[in-house]
Each structure stands twice: as structure tokens, then as C-alpha cells.
Amino acid sequence: MSRRPLAITSGDPAGIGPDLVLPLAAALPGLPLVLLGDRQVLDERARRLGLNVALIDWRPGQALPEHGTALWHCAAGAPVQAGRPDPATGAGTLTMLERAADGCLDGTFAAMVTAPLAKNVIRDRADPAFTGHTEFLAARAGIERVVMMLAAGDLRVALATTHLPLARVPSAINGADLTRTLTILRDDLRDKFAIAEPRILVLGLNPHAGESGHLGREEIDIISPTLERLRAAGFALTGPLPADTAFQPALLERHDAVLAMYHDQGLPVLKYAGFGEAVNITLGLPFVRTSVDHGTAFELAGSGQAHGGSLLAATRLAAHLTGGDAP
Questions:
Q1: Could you say which of 102, 110, 210, 235 has the lowest number of CB atoms within 10 Å?
Q2: Is 130 strand, coil or helix?
Q3: For residue 81, with 0-12 CB atoms within 10 Å meaning exposed, 13-18 middle and 19 or more buried, which class applies?
Q4: Distance CA 146, CA 151 (A)
Q5: Domain termination site, one of 250, 266, 284
Q6: Residue ranges with strand state E in 52-121
């Protein structure tokens, strides 16, 4: 293969990540992939699921195997039982992320695709400050700000704030951060999604977008003035609009992405539209990173009932955004 491979991290070893990554190469023949995970965990999960997957040991600098699936072994750090998360495996999960991110930064990998992990498992022992893939990868890449965006078909929803308690959201909305977020969103829609003039629909923070200040002043004092300044600089922005009426098909058809002010303002609509098939994309990184739209589902690990549609969509999108189309 002349193309650089995609790095596929297998997520929490006790969750459904191993179940999802094992059949990926067979589902996408001809696409160069490298799985990152614990060999023993993956071999055991394959046996449990009745999958015939030949995992071939691989290290950076080596050619990809002509047959079988390349595996960069990352020790879990403790014995793993499907469905039973263990904080002792948190450091091994972080090692997978570090290797994949560093490989993207040094050109080993074309992009990284991540299976789900459990934040609390990592926080309990490996890294008490860990808040998620998005923030971790930004720090690893030395980037001050990135943007989380989920996509389900043509519906794209980006977030002005991510994993914050709801009580902290209003104080996190300010003109400087909104400007950076909208700039990253506009630039990546141009550069990665090849949308020449991105049209972005921006939600308000408060019910009815503040109702002229009666339900909150963030729209008047912060959001609207920021949008006006950016419009004067050439941005195509609509809003701020009330979140309860913004997701109308007629409005969405006229826009390329929606910016929500907080996590649960925009993502319930997105996941309703395409749960199990949606893709999480981290914008603003110097490389492409995509992920699934769901969690570890420990109760399904090793059962054969985990649905791999989102990981498949994330891998296809990563391939497309890096210059090639997956089968």
C-alpha cells in the first residue's frame, strides 16, 4: 500500500471497542488500517465472537502485511474481562491514544479513528484530569482550542462548549472563544470538507434565544455582537436562533453546519437523526480524527450484539477526508 494507514484505537478493553474494530478490515478491504490494542484482549474477543481475524504484529517503519490485519500491540496493563471495566487498564488506553496521535503528527498515520472509552475509568487512576478524547488530543497536539462536531449525513452540529456541567456553561460563553470556535469551524469546513463558503447557523444560549433579554442577556451582550463582527469579516452566519425551532428542514437545507452553545443543546437532535451511524469529528487539530457517536456499552461487550455502523462511518469519513474513499 502506498497510502499511509489510518490508526484505529480499540478503546476501553472491557467495552465494545474490541468487538467493533476486529471486523473492520474485512468490512473495508483494501483500506490501509492499523489497529492499536492489546493482542491478548483482541485474540480472546475474536474467539468469543467466533471471528476469524489474523492479527499481524506491526510497528512504525514496517510495511503493512499483505494478508491479515496490522496490530500495534498496546498492553492493557491488567487482565481484562469483557463487560467489567478496570481502572488498572486506563494507562494502557492512554498509551493507545498517545501512539495514534503522535503517529498522525509525525506522518506515520493519515488519520486516527477512535473506538469508545470510559472517562471515569481513566480518571480513577491513570489521569484524574482526563475529560475526554477531544481535550486530550488537543493537549497532545499543543493546540489551545479545538471544536467537537458530530455529523449524521448532511447534518453537522458543532459545539461552542463540550464537557462542562450545565451551571458552568453561561460563564464559558464569551466573544473571544466564540470567534475562535466559529473560525475553526469555518476553516475546517473549507479545508477538510471542501465547502467553499460555509454557511453556519448559530443557536442562542437561552430559551427563545433570550426573548429580547427577558430570558437572559447572553444573546444581546455576547453572541449577537460577535456574529455581527464576524459577518463584517466575511463569515456567512445566521442567528442566534432559538434552539427549539432551528432544526427545521428548510433552515438546515440552507446551512452547512449548526453551532450549538452546549453539549445537550445540539447533540440530542443529531443523535436522534442518526444514532449508531453518526460520526464525531475533532476540528482544529493538525490531523484528522474521527470517532463513534456512542459509548463503551459494557453490557454488550463480547455478546455479538454491538452494532458497528458508527465506527464504519467514522473510518470511511476519515479515509475520505484524507484523500481516499473507502469501499
A1: 102
A2: coil
A3: middle
A4: 16
A5: 284
A6: 55-57, 69-73, 111-114
Which residue type sits at 128?
P
pLDDT tens for 122-142 read 999 999 999 899 889 999 999
CA distance 57 to 233: 51
- What kind and span of H or E run contains 60? none
Side chain identity at 104, as an amino acid letter? C
pLDDT one-digit tens code per residue, 154-200: 999 999 998 889 999 999 999 999 999 999 999 999 999 999 999 99
- Whether residues 224 and 251 share a domain: the answer is yes
Q: Which residues contact 151 (CB under 8 A, 6 or more apart)?
A: 157, 270, 278, 279, 281, 317
How far are the Cα atoms of 57, 64, 326 from residue 29, in angstroms, in the given order? 19, 13, 8
Q: What is the largest CA-CA distance in the chain?
A: 65
Answer yes or no: are the C-beta atoms of 91 and 125 closer than 8 Å: yes
The three cell numbers of residue 14 are 472491557
In DSSP terms, 242 is beta-bridged to none
The CATH number of residue 11's host domain is 3.40.718.10
Based on the fold, state whether residues 300 and 187 are members of the same structural domain. no
Strands 155-159, 147-152: pairing is antiparallel
